[in-house]
Amino acid sequence: MKSVDAHLADILATVRTLAPLELELERALGTTLAEEVSSPVPLPPFDNSAMDGYAVRSADVAAAPVTLPVIDDIPAGSGELRAIGPGHAVRIMTGAPLPAGADAVVPVEWTDAGTATVRVDRPVAEGNAVRRAGEDVQAGEVVLKPGTRIGAAQLGIIAGTGRRRVWVRPRPRVVVLSTGAELVEPGAPLGAGQIWDSNSFTLTAAVREAGGDGFRAGTVTDDPAVFLDQLDAQLVRADVVITSGGVSMGAYEPVKEALTPLGTVRFERVAMQPGMPQGFGVVGDDQVPIFTLPGNPVSSYVSFMLFVRPALRKMSGLPAGPPPLHTAQVLSALRSPEGKRSFLRGVLADDGTVVTPVHGQGSHQLAALASANCLIVVPEQVTEVPSGAAVQVIRI
Ligand SMILES: Nc1nc2c(c(=O)[nH]1)N[C@H]1C(S)=C(S)[C@@H](COP(=O)(O)OP(=O)(O)OC[C@H]3O[C@@H](n4cnc5c(N)ncnc54)[C@H](O)[C@@H]3O)O[C@H]1N2
Ligand code: MOO
User: What is the required cofactor set for this protein (predicted)?
Assistant: First the structure.
């Protein structure tokens, strides 16, 4: 049997980082930056007030309480400013430019809030409540480097440098297809021998959680020709295809039957539990990577986390490798088949120190998976883990 590590290595050697494209900022969330972003101007662009209050010369309020004439009113956005002379105050709002001559702002709470004159009750140091030009970013300074995942704050600073569009590696577009004659769309009634299709929902959501654009292309019955037609129709919008089901040893394995003759997809047994039957390769003129995951719901999800997620990261231009491991103490004994790496479902305590396996470790037990927040990894050569032992876990 092929090792988990060898299978992931083959996958990462095959998938390519997506080519950069220029996107409107509104569409850039979750993509990876493909250029250096710098600011054309200092940020803030001008000295401004950090508080609502009065711009003054600090020397004029050193002997507070003092009363000063208020010679101007500066809301944020004001362009033309009068310089203030000695003994004067100007009412100023947060974000408004500091007038020439002023060197400090007195918060309104330290005054009588007057409009013609103002009584300042406390002295302020020079620079009090003043935000200096360039304090956040100098003109020309790089604020984000290529390879940065664009989240809310990153999008904010790109907009904050005045950019409308940005070069990024896009979110991979991933089409998810379920196969199985027993599958019914949730919402429709269940007939004898049928189950509701859950994998396409799980996998599409997992794609989105991993930063891809997931499209649920629904279910295909057990006919290989119909499966190939469906796959062909989906390839135009796919950077990756994920299928679930139809890859093990049964009499009706449409995915295996349809793809084996192409010679570009390998079906293998990987030394893991769950998730042993795996298929991976490329399809279509554009050599679109395809993951044919096992149908058991827990198996397909675990396979996604171990193999598809790292591939999506590589395609997005992010560092890609096996999921990060954390160490915790397991609170009950575990068993694992010899020669396979087990990924048991567990609940990791909030502080990350201890982990409890969930009840129901079958690869069909989706409710048990839904109650878990981690996978407990038991190495290939280990068959029994005593309660209290240190184990490695993958957060999910
Ligand atoms: N004789 C053998 N039988 C099986 C082997 C084996 O080595 N020899 N491997 C087992 C393992 S391990 C797994 S995992 C499954 C994988 O089977 P398939 O990938 O061919 O998947 P199916 O047979 O289509 O389905 C398996 C199971 O999962 C349910 N399923 C499928 N799709 C969905 C879906 N979209 N939503 C919810 N549930 C789904 C399906 O009804 C089956 O119960 O094979 C074992 N058998
Ligand atoms: O190894 Mo299968 O993937 O669990 O039931």
Answer: Mg(2+)
